[in-house]
UniProtKB/TrEMBL annotation, chain A:
Keywords: Electron transport, Heme, Iron, Membrane, Metal-binding, Signal, Transmembrane, Transmembrane helix, Transport. One of its GO terms (molecular function) is heme binding. Residues 34-126 form the Cytochrome c domain. CDD domains: Cytochrom_C3. Residues 1-31 form the signal peptide. It holds the Pfam family Cytochrom_C. The chain crosses the membrane at residues 150-169, 201-222. This is C-type cytochrome.
UniProtKB/TrEMBL annotation, chain B:
Gene3D superfamilies: 3.30.70.20, 3.40.50.740, Formate dehydrogenase/DMSO reductase (3.30.2070.10). Residues 778-808, 897-926 form the 4Fe-4S ferredoxin-type domain. SUPFAM superfamilies: 4Fe-4S ferredoxins, ADC-like, Formate dehydrogenase/DMSO reductase, domains 1-3. The lineage of its organism: Bacteria, Pseudomonadati, Bacteroidota, Flavobacteriia, Flavobacteriales. This is TAT-variant-translocated molybdopterin oxidoreductase. Pfam families: Fer4_11 (PF13247). InterPro entries: 4Fe4S_Fe-S-bd, Asp_de-COase-like_dom_sf, TAT_var_transloc_signal_dom. PROSITE patterns: 4FE4S_FER_2.
């Protein structure tokens, strides 16, 4: 018993030792190889702005970087590259020179383990998630649409058969009657249109209705002339506000910055695009697939168009200087005789862009949301209160005007926002 | 009361029986609507093969097509920057400080640019000297967008590249060097320290180079006199705000005399202040031949011919010096004017007196300097003189002689057009053809460029670098505000290129400045400010002033000699004297292709698009020359031929009230033909008479009328205020000084229930007043005393508000579009009532107060009238007559006091213009942009670049008028809102008030009690135009006060 217990004890020791060994060896294995999944997170958070796996960006492509350099060298490079360049490390100086002497950000807070994880990711990135099911989901509603059509088709067919049958029955009966010598006598009646024409009252009423009706529709048609609500032209580059303002939640005024200070909201110049697109050279695989299936657009090709326009050589990460300015089709057109100032509405009044431009963040293709008619402007001026708080300009006028009109809050109209000359000069 | 005075705008109005004036008073729309013209005459209609059915078919089809086409909106493209410059935000204006120095006008200016294009030039308030941009300077922005500009260098008329050009020039220069002949640089006055240095370096490097500077309108006499006395070739500077008595003998101090730019100082001294029962303002006496702006503004004007002017100057010296008198015959009026002036000078203190002269005679100019030194005048500055003119008549004449004799191997010209501006007698073009190498830097294919083999396309000043020393010690910089539009190169770059320097001119200026101008100051700051004042000047001034005192004794004897020789040599001439002058709108003619300036009506004659002979009424009558006002208010005049030497010029005559007898005036700067659009080739080139560069020429003959009538584009009888008086109010300094407002500025009374009540009382009002005490309430103040009539505001309004140019024919039809006009009124010193009284008081037939003399003196009040200028724009009435009659409510009132005009709402009934008592509304008879019939700047893409993007370009068939620059006030308000602060008083401006360097126009918010305009509104001199109508305008005027003589 005792022996057994001894054996057990020795077994336990060995077992423990073995497990310890296994544990240790697995730990050391992990220390060298890292965890690619954790690495991916770290990579995207810290490195992706300047590095990609398989292409040069601001910094070199990182796929297989673990094989190119000593691990210890990589640790110190990542933690403080500029110190290495200063110290005259040969490899460091070479890479510094190759990438236009741009200094790599130091990451002193990354532990060696973190760096190992990142390297593990760069050595063997996890496979991209399969996107087949999204297309399957997208295909499903299309099926039900087809079945509806089939049902309608069948119904139509049945009706047609019924009509043919009735005609056949009628003609057969007539033939039988003719064969039997029965003469069907047709009553002489004035045709309905003649009766209508002879009834002057009816003609008059109908004419009046017709005239009124056509006037109504003519008025409706004429009033929409020159109003381009819903205007969504095809643009030279398929730019998706849905992705930028919606999915990525980029603030409108990041790109349309002149809306803050100028009467124009401004179409962003291409250098603004390049602030991000220098490093974003392709969209995520699922976005790409979605673009292809939903809108028939290859988003990556659209980014290429931007590069051509701005003259960016993405292979060598430099500007070629050969630019092709983009001819955007202007969507919101106010007539020349209207003065509208974005900064007045955006900065002073604090109006959300969406108030006039609609849910831009949901628009794949930008469209004019509001009618932009004078009535539409005026209504808003009548209903909207002026944001006077904290603006010294309004202090005195608000006090005096609210006393005059006996209200706490002043609308733009009460402030003088309905006067002709405020917008027409 | 002052308003009983007799005012007239045209001599025609003096004829009380004139049916024309009566008709013009009664009719707003003088012309019948030309239906006949529109329909054509019967014969043509009948012979046409188009039947009525066809006509209706076409009309129907085209209407349907037009309306269908209108349904489809156009596709508009927007092209953003690829890389947006960080200083440019679309929709936000940038301002740059720069300097214009075109050889005639020198001024520090601010340039407003939008999206990188300059659209407006205005006064630079930070500059101490020449910061007052005149009309020509303001209009200069349009020269940049001149479609007639040279777009690249040419050799022998063929366009070449700069490389080919340089090679060809280099070859020529080698030839010149080999021949041993000299190379001449024949340029404008640059007044540029860096250019001077560069030219000297070029002289050294090339050897045998001569530099001759040339001013088209010469100030050589004054320059010589100044150089003799002070050793510097420059012109004395004057600050008329420091003078209590201004005596001008033939000097148009408010015009282009000695480079101009004296208005601001002058106007400052002209605004009267009441102080302890006495009024105080400067006293200005003017002896002159032509009616000039200065004469028009003077308190006492004596029309004299040039010979008499010389005597006046000599006698004036004697009277001021108090020494022995100088003989010479003068009219009684001149004698008494001298006496009064001297008495005034003694009273004011001699050092508060200044004497100036425009006589082109070195002795006269030297005498002026002596007189001012003797007086110890504080208004003259000889220590920091002005450098804006430099040409020497002798040097120019000898150069032409050398050119003719073949001593000159080559000439390089820059900024000059001598083929146009040299007198015919000198034969410059012929002399030039004898020069082997002829090259010019020119913006346009002008007369000189056509005579040169090598034409280097030069940039506009808004595209160039440069530095200017307008006044000694006062430096300013020229910087580009736009990238060169064309393949151009400036003269200085060209010199650097010839010297094979690898520096560009920007670096050259910067190095020169850091070395010798700035000392320790910052270049970037200087460039930002546009001006830089050397700090050392102040000390120097004191030392020199002290030295001048010692000199005085010794000079007095020689001054007397000068005066007596001047008087001795002033011999009467029997022939007519031709006085050449430059017009406010045209200057020396280099801006002839500028439609704004062509359309600008001359302040005195009110005629645009022409030059002409101005002649005294009695001289004209003697020759049988007449002027005739036709039914629509336009003016026709006879032609006359003036012969000077062998040169004959035929020009129309305008009979000018106040023109000295025996003299005629003739404006330089017209008659340009090369490089000028057909429509803008106006007038006759008077430079051909400019012999010896003297503005006074003796005519061999002035002929009687010939060639029928000339049609002037003269607007003096147009837009009259319907025969209502009480427009100009004026008084004398004594009455004003006494402090009783009612004596000179009565509020009109109206009758209510048979009771006389003042028109301003609420009972007299038809309407309930809107409470305007909340928010802003804009008012514009116009001081008739400070307004010199220069017209800078008219051009500024043109530029800011996209006012179209309509052309000579349309102006003649009273269809000019100026939102702002400056009415010029003549008045005689008598009233109609006074005339009658005078006639009754006359005693005896002859003698001092005899009926004969009295009647003669009354015969022609136009011999020497008083003049008053009155800018009139929309008065923005609180109770506006135009608003109540608009059938579509296109014009309405804003609570900020502005009368709004919604062009898109206007249907063009013109009822508003009909009902406007001030006649300030303008109707768009045609589409003036993109219309070949109006081939001015708005007809090509280049010219349209000057349009202000914040103001709509009006279309045909709508009414327009002054908006009180609502785009500018709205911008100031928005800027304040965005910053969360209140608006500062100085932020509110209109284009006209910003352009007014004499501070006659002041704009602001009267609800801001601290504002300047609120103070001005409380002034005793304040009155409203046609107050009796009860329109309650938001524009108010200040009674004109004249410092008249009671002693005389």
């Amino acid at each position: 018993m005792k022996k057994v217990s001894y054996q057990n004890a020795s077994m336990r020791f060995f077992g423990f030792a073995f497990s310890l060994l296994v544990a240790f060896s697995s730990f050391s294995l992990q220390a060298q190889d890292g965890d690619p999944v954790a690495g991916e997170k770290l990579f995207k958070a810290n490195c992706a702005a300047c590095h990609a796996l398989n292409r040069k960006m601001t910094g070199p492509a990182l796929a297989g970087v673990g094989d190119k350099y000593e691990r210890e060298w990589l640790y110190s490079w990542i933690k403080n590259s500029s110190a290495m360049v200063k110290s005259g490390d040969e490899q460091a100086v070479a890479i510094y020179a190759e990438y236009n002497e741009s200094v790599m950000t130091s990451f002193p807070l990354l532990t060696n383990t973190d760096i190992d994880n990142i390297i593990a990711y760069t050595m063997a990135p996890p496979p991209a998630p399969v996107v087949a099911d999204t297309t399957a989901v997208a295909a499903a509603p299309a099926d039900s649409g087809i079945s509806n059509n089939i049902i309608l088709g069948i119904l139509g067919l049945v009706l047609a058969v019924l009509v043919i049958m009735l005609v056949l029955v009628n003609s057969t009966l007539r033939k039988i009657a003719a064969a039997n010598g029965v003469v069907v006598e047709e009553e002489k009646r004035t045709p309905i249109w003649k009766a209508f024409a002879q009834n002057q009252f009816l003609v008059l009423v109908t004419a009046i209705f017709l005239l009124l009706g056509s006037a109504y529709f003519a008025y409706g048609w004429m009033m929409q002339v020159g109003i381009d609500q819903g205007y969504a032209p095809k643009q030279p580059i398929h730019y998706s506000h849905r992705i930028h303002a919606g999915a990525n939640e980029i603030e409108c005024k990041y790109c349309h910055s002149s809306a803050r200070v100028s009467k124009h909201s401004g179409i962003p110049s291409l250098n603004v695009c390049m602030n991000c697109h220098k490093s974003i050279y392709e969209v995520a695989a699922e976005t790409l697939a979605e673009g292809k299936s939903e809108y028939g657009i290859d988003y990556n090709k659209e980014i290429e168009k931007l590069y051509t326009a701005v003259g960016w050589d993405s292979e060598n990460q430099r500007y070629t200087g050969e630019t092709e300015p983009v001819d955007w089709v202007r969507i919101h057109n106010l007539p020349d005789f209207v003065y509208f100032n974005h900064s007045q509405h955006v900065e002073v009044a604090g109006v959300e862009c969406q108030t006039c431009h609609g849910p831009v963040e949901e628009m794949e293709i930008m469209a004019q949301h509001s009618p932009l008619t004078m009535g539409w402007c005026i209504n808003c001026h009548r209903e909207t209160n002026v944001k006077t708080e904290g603006n010294e300009y309004y202090t005195k006028i608000h006090e005096e005007l609210s006393k005059k009109y006996g209200v706490d809050k002043l609308t733009a109209a009460q402030m003088g926002g309905l006067e002709c000359g405020k917008c027409h000069y | 009361m002052a308003s009983n005075k007799k005012y007239w705008k045209s001599v025609e109005e003096l004829d009380t029986n004139s049916t024309l004036v009566e008709a013009l008073k009664q009719n707003e729309f003088i012309e019948e609507i030309p239906t006949d013209e529109f329909l054509g005459d019967k014969e043509v209609l009948e012979s046409s093969s188009t039947s009525r059915r066809d006509f209706l078919k076409y009309v129907g089809f085209s209407t349907a097509a037009a309306s269908l086409a209108a349904c489809e909106g156009p596709v508009i493209k927007s092209i953003p920057y690829v890389v947006q410059p960080d200083t440019i935000v679309p929709g936000v204006a940038n301002h740059y400080a720069t300097t214009i120095a075109n050889g005639f006008d020198f001024a520090s200016v601010l340039v407003k640019t939008r999206e990188g294009r300059p659209i407006f030039v205005k006064n630079h308030d930070k500059a101490a000297t020449n910061a007052s941009a005149n009309g020509r300077v303001i209009a200069s922005v349009l020269d940049l967008y001149d479609s007639g500009r040279l777009q690249g260098p040419t050799v022998g008329g063929e366009a070449v590249t700069w490389n080919a050009f340089d090679n060809a020039v280099a070859k020529k220069l080698v030839e010149i060097k080999a021949s041993g002949k000299k190379l001449v640089l024949f340029t404008q006055t640059f007044a540029s320290p860096s250019t001077t240095k560069l030219i000297n370096e070029f002289k050294e490097s090339f050897g045998n180079v001569e530099h001759v500077s040339y001013d088209a309108v010469s100030e050589s006499a004054a320059l010589d006199a100044f150089q003799n006395k002070y050793g510097v070739r420059a012109l004395a500077d004057y600050d008329f705000s420091k003078a209590d008595v201004i005596i001008s003998v033939g000097a148009d101090i408010l015009g282009d005399w000695q480079g101009g730019g004296f208005d601001a100082g002058y106007a400052k001294g002209r605004v009267p202040h009441a102080d302890h029962g006495k009024g105080k303002m400067s006293y200005h006496v003017q002896f002159e031949s032509n009616m000039t702006l200065s004469g028009a503004n003077a308190d006492k004007r004596v029309p004299l011919n040039p010979v008499q002017q010389k005597r006046v100057l000599a006698k004036l010296y004697a009277a001021l010096a108090g020494g022995p008198s100088i003989s010479g015959e003068l009219p009684a009026a001149a004698e008494s004017a001298i006496k009064t002036a001297v008495a005034r000078a003694k009273k004011a203190g001699k050092n508060k007196t200044v004497v100036v002269s425009g006589i082109q005679d070195a002795t006269a100019q030297a005498l002026v300097l002596e007189i001012n030194e003797m007086l110890g005048s504080v208004a003259i500055d000889t220590d920091a003189p002005k450098m804006v003119r430099s040409s020497s008549n002798k040097a120019v004449e000898s150069l032409v002689a050398e050119m003719r004799s073949g001593q000159v191997g080559g000439v390089i010209m820059a900024g000059v057009n001598p083929v146009y501006s040299m007198p015919a007698k000198l034969g410059f073009e012929d002399a030039l053809s004898k020069v082997g190498f002829r090259m010019t830097y020119s913006m346009k294919a002008d007369e000189t460029a056509n005579a040169c083999e090598f034409v280097a396309a030069a940039p506009h000043y808004l595209e160039s670098w440069g530095d200017v020393q307008i006044k000694k010690g006062h430096y300013s910089l020229t910087q580009p505000t736009i990238r060169p539009l064309f393949d151009t190169r400036q003269f200085q770059e060209g010199l650097l290129q010839l010297m094979l320097s690898n520096k560009n001119y920007y670096d050259y200026i910067k190095d020169n400045w850091t070395e010798s101008v700035l000392v320790d100051s910052s270049w970037n700051q200087a460039l930002h400010d546009g001006v830089f004042q050397a700090p050392a000047i102040a000390q120097e001034e004191v030392v020199v002033a002290a030295a001048a005192d010692e000199l005085e004794e010794s000079t007095s004897a020689s001054a007397y000699n000068m005066a007596s020789s001047l008087a001795r040599n002033a011999k009467d001439v029997a022939e007519t004297q031709v006085i050449l002058y430059t017009k406010t709108g045209m200057g020396d003619g280099q801006q002839a292709n500028n439609p704004w300036l062509q359309e600008f009506p001359d302040p005195i004659t009110r005629a645009a698009w022409d030059n002409y002979i101005t002649m005294n009424a009695s001289d004209a009558a003697a020759l049988g020359i007449e002027n005739e006002n036709v039914a629509n208010g336009a003016l026709n005049g006879h032609y006359s031929t003036v012969k000077v030497g062998d040169t004959e010029l035929t020009l129309p005559v305008i009979i000018q009230p106040g023109q000295a007898k025996g003299t005629v005036g003739l404006a330089l700067g017209y008659g340009r033909t090369a490089g000028v659009k057909d429509e803008l080739q106006t007038g006759v080139n008077a430079f051909s008479l400019y012999n010896d560069f003297d503005n006074v020429q003796t005519a061999k003959s002035v002929s009687a009328p010939a060639n029928g009538w000339h049609e002037f584009a003269c607007i003096q009888l147009q837009n009259t205020l319907m025969g209502r008086g009480d427009i100009i109010r004026e008084t004398t300094l004594d009455i004003f000084g006494a402090g009783d407002k009612h004596a000179y500025n009565e509020i009109p009374m109206v009758s209510k229930d048979h009771q006389e009540i003042p028109v301003t009382s609420p009972d007299a009002d038809l309407w309930d007043s809107f409470d305007r005490s909340v928010g802003h309430h804009f008012n514009l103040s116009i001081d008739l005393n400070a307004c010199t009539g220069c017209g800078a505001c008219v051009v500024a309004c043109h530029a800011e508000n996209n006012v179209p140019v309509v052309g000579k024919e349309e102006v003649r039809k009273s269809r000019n579009m100026h939102w702002l006009r400056i009415d010029r009124y003549y008045s005689s010193e008598e009233t109609f009532d006074g005339d009658n009284q005078k006639k009754e008081n006359a005693s005896g037939l002859f003698g001092d107060n005899g009926v004969k003399d009295v009647l003669i003196s009354m015969e022609d009040p136009s011999e020497n009238p008083q003049v008053a200028f009155q800018p009139v724009m929309c008065q923005h009435c609180n109770h506006a007559p135009c608003e109540t009659v608009c059938p579509v409510a296109a014009t309405a009132h804003g609570r900020q006091g502005q009368n709004h005009m919604a062009y898109n709402r206007c249907v063009g009934t013109r009822y508003c213009a009909n009902n406007c008592p001030y006649k300030v509304r303008r109707f768009n008879w045609f589409l003036y942009n993109g219309n070949d019939e109006f081939d001015y700047h708005m007809n090509d893409d280049l010219g349209r670049m000057v349009l202000n993007p914040d103001v709509v370009v009006r279309s045909r068939g709508v009414m327009e008028k002054c908006s009180m620059c609502i785009q500018m006030t709205q911008k100031s308000i928005l800027d304040a809102k965005r910053d969360g602060r209140t608006v500062k008083d100085s932020e509110f401006q209109t284009a006209c008030s910003a352009a007014c360097s004499s501070n006659a126009l002041v704009f602001g918010d009267i609800n801001d009690k601290e504002s300047e305009v609120a103070h001005l509104k409380k002034s005793d001199r304040m009155y409203h135009l046609l107050e009796s109508v009860g329109t309650e305008p938001n524009v108010f005027y200040h009674v004109k006060v004249r410092n008249t003589d009671k002693e005389a």
